[in-house]
Design brief:
The chain is of the alpha+beta class. It folds into two domains: 129 residues, Ribosomal protein L10, N-terminal RNA-binding domain (Alpha-Beta Plaits); 36 residues. It has a five-stranded antiparallel sheet with strand order 2-3-1-4-5. The chain starts with a helix and ends with a helix. 27% of the residues are buried.
């Protein structure tokens, strides 16, 4: 019986390690007090953007983190903690959870692990305000495009003036 329980725990630790290693961003939140409908809605919102939402025993998460060399996460793993794993965009889970927490006060963002760095609750809320990567790239490209477009219009105007002068 004891060895079977140990095997189950080792399998869970291996699962958590795999998810932690693969994830670009992991958000830890305290979910105690959410009712079933709210929890279902939160899971649906996260699933729609490719974020995996799980609840594990804190001790197993701490073991997995230690095996991966992640330090400092254990201070945030107290109480009923859920983990949201974002595999594509490191801050997508942060944005979804922060938006949900605005209308559901029982959900509290405790910390985040973004590309190997731990952020506390206040920093997580700041990260949530950062637009998605695609939006940032579009803004950057837009800022490059405006001067180039103006330059192209200027060259075209010079060409048309020369054609009129001839």
């Amino acid at each position: 019986m004891l060895s079977n329980n140990r095997q189950l725990k080792e399998a869970k630790v291996a699962e958590i390690k795999e998810k932690l290693a693969k994830a670009q961003g992991v958000v830890l939140s305290q979910y105690q007090g959410l009712n079933v409908e709210d929890d279902t809605l939160l899971r649906k919102n996260l699933r729609e953007v490719g974020v995996e939402y799980k609840v594990y025993k804190n001790t197993l998460v701490i073991l997995a983190a230690k095996e991966l060399g992640i330090e400092g996460i254990e201070t945030h793993l107290q109480g009923s903690i859920s983990l949201a794993f974002g595999y594509e965009d490191p801050t997508v889970a942060t944005r979804i959870l922060a938006e949900f927490a605005k209308t559901h006060k029982k959900l509290e963002l405790k910390a985040a692990l973004i590309q190997g760095k731990i952020f506390d609750g206040a920093q997580v809320n700041m990260l949530a305000s950062i637009p998605p990567r695609d939006v940032l790239i579009a803004k950057l490209l837009g800022s490059f495009k405006a001067p180039l477009s103006n330059f192209a219009y200027l060259l075209n105007a010079v060409k048309e003036q020369k054609e009129l002068a001839e």
